[in-house]
Design brief:
The protein is mainly beta and about 400 residues long. The protein has a single domain (about 20-405), classed as Neuraminidase. Helices cover about 10% and strands about 50% of the residues. It contains four helices and 25 strands. The protein has helices at about 1-20, 125-130, 155-160, 395-405; strands at about 25-30, 35-45, 50-55, 65-75, 80, 85, 95-105, 110-120, 135-145, 155, 170-175, 180, 185-200, 205-215, 225, 235-245, 250-255, 260-265, 275-285, 295-300, 320-330, 335-340, 355-370, 375-380, 390-395. A seven-stranded antiparallel beta sheet has the order 1-25-24-23-22-21-20. Strands 2, 3, 4, 5 and 6 form a five-stranded antiparallel beta sheet that branches. Strands 11, 12, 13, 14 and 15 form a five-stranded antiparallel beta sheet that branches. Residues about 1-15 and about 305-315 have low confidence and may be disordered.
Length: about 400
């Protein structure tokens, strides 16, 4: 009898592991028309509303990005109803293209900040790196009516980065969501291609290396600061707040890498600086890497782990929050988007095996949480990951069951 039960349980798990959440296509590539890339997603609980963002491009190339677009989603009659695609025409600078949507919601003022970068004309990232001449601007627009209307663009480049920009070959935010920490600090994840050495007297860059960092605000977005660079080579990133059993905050960074595995780092200064970056051996990257998304959330009460004591040596890595992460799982190409769970965020080996939520071509993704549910906005398709950007929902219990941890 026991063998039969074990067999049934194993079969049930195997069957569940192969299931994929139902997809809703929000942005689809048009034949001889625009391509949509670079998803970003937030859920505003005050309005029970999803805001889904993407770049609209005339071709799949980064240099042919044009504007940001958005759709609003709200629960109606047991399903999510989505607004038509809206072009965010105010999120731009003249003669610049708009890229890398990175939204964050400020709770007290009930303001959505949508950060992005504006890049001069069709100047490529590669050209900026080779010449050492940055053409990217740090910008944002705001909405105080949950995305129905948006402000004019604010350019923070001079006031926040200042003269340091001469050492930045180029930079960008996110892409994907920012966060607001428990103490109210707003965090915008970002990365910079930093010029470590130049050739004199010609002044062209000899050694340029990418580093993840954060922009942050402690006054509800009135003023902004730039944090220190993560010392290890790291690129596109997202961040999440981990609470230990003393309710102390630790800002976690999960960043893109070209060295086969993701880069992780922790900050004890709420993003002003990051310590001890390392390679996450369970989180693989394809050769050139890919963007990924990470969220933190409270340990569910039903887990029986929320009340464990910090001084219990068997639970030395326990926290009041867990992490969930989405990224393509294949080591060679962008395909098979998976969701990973980490119950021990301070452990360098805490990540579960992934649950595949999209079999086949998969690219960038962004996740958000509402209640005990999660949603993911992801690049996917039949032959290529740039065919559409789709929305999926799943429960925390689905992740726990599928990851079998």
């Amino acid at each position: 009898m026991k063998g039969m039960i074990d067999s049934m349980a194993s079969k049930s798990y195997a069957e569940f592991h192969q299931t994929q959440p139902a997809k809703t296509s929000l942005f689809r590539q048009q034949k001889n028309g625009p391509t949509y890339r670079i998803p970003a997603l937030i859920y505003i609980s005050d309005a029970q509303t999803f805001l889904a963002f993407a770049e609209e491009r005339s071709t799949p190339r980064d240099s042919d990005a044009k504007v940001l677009v958005m759709r609003r989603g709200s629960h109606q009659n047991g399903s999510i109803q989505w607004s038509p695609v809206q072009t965010l025409s105010s999120a731009c600078l003249p003669d610049h293209r708009t890229m890398n949507p990175c939204p964050v919601y400020e709770r007290k003022s009930k303001t959505v900040f949508l950060f992005f970068v504006s890049i001069l004309g069709n100047t490529t990232e590669e050209r900026q790196i080779v010449t050492g001449r940055n053409q990217s601007h740090l910008c944002y627009v705001t909405s105080t009516d949950y995305g129905l209307s948006w402000s004019k663009t604010t350019d923070l480049t001079n006031s926040v980065i200042g003269d340091e920009i001469t050492n930045w070959a180029t930079f960008a935010v996110g892409p994907g969501h920012g966060i607001q920490m428990k103490n109210g600090r707003l965090i915008i994840p970002a990365y910079v291609y930093y010029i470590h050495y130049r050739c004199f007297p010609f002044y062209f860059p000899l050694y340029v290396k990418p580093h993840a960092l954060s922009f942050y605000s402690d006054d509800r977005g009135i003023t902004w600061n730039v944090g220190e660079k993560i010392s290890m080579s790291s690129c596109e990133c997202e961040m999440a707040e981990i609470l230990d059993h003393a309710d102390q905050s630790h800002l976690y960074c999960n960043a893109r890498s070209t060295h086969g595995h993701r880069v992780e780092a922790l900050s004890q200064s709420n993003g002003a600086a990051f310590d001890k970056p390392h390679s996450a051996q369970k989180l693989v990257e394809a050769h050139f890497g890919c963007q990924g998304s990470v969220l933190s959330f409270p340990v569910p009460e039903s887990s029986g782990e929320e009340g464990k004591k910090q001084n219990d040596s068997s639970t030395q890595f326990d926290t009041k929050t867990w992490l969930v992460y989405s990224h393509p799982t294949d080591k060679k190409k962008r395909k098979d988007l998976g969701v990973y769970l980490n119950k021990t965020p301070f452990s360098t080996n805490g990540w579960s095996q992934p649950w595949i939520i999209n079999k086949g071509p998969s690219g960038y993704s962004d996740m958000t949480q509402y209640g005990q549910n999660f949603a993911c906005l992801m690049e996917c398709g039949e032959k290529s990951e740039i065919e559409e950007i789709a929305f999926v929902e799943f429960k925390l219990s689905d992740v726990i069951c599928a990851c079998n941890v």
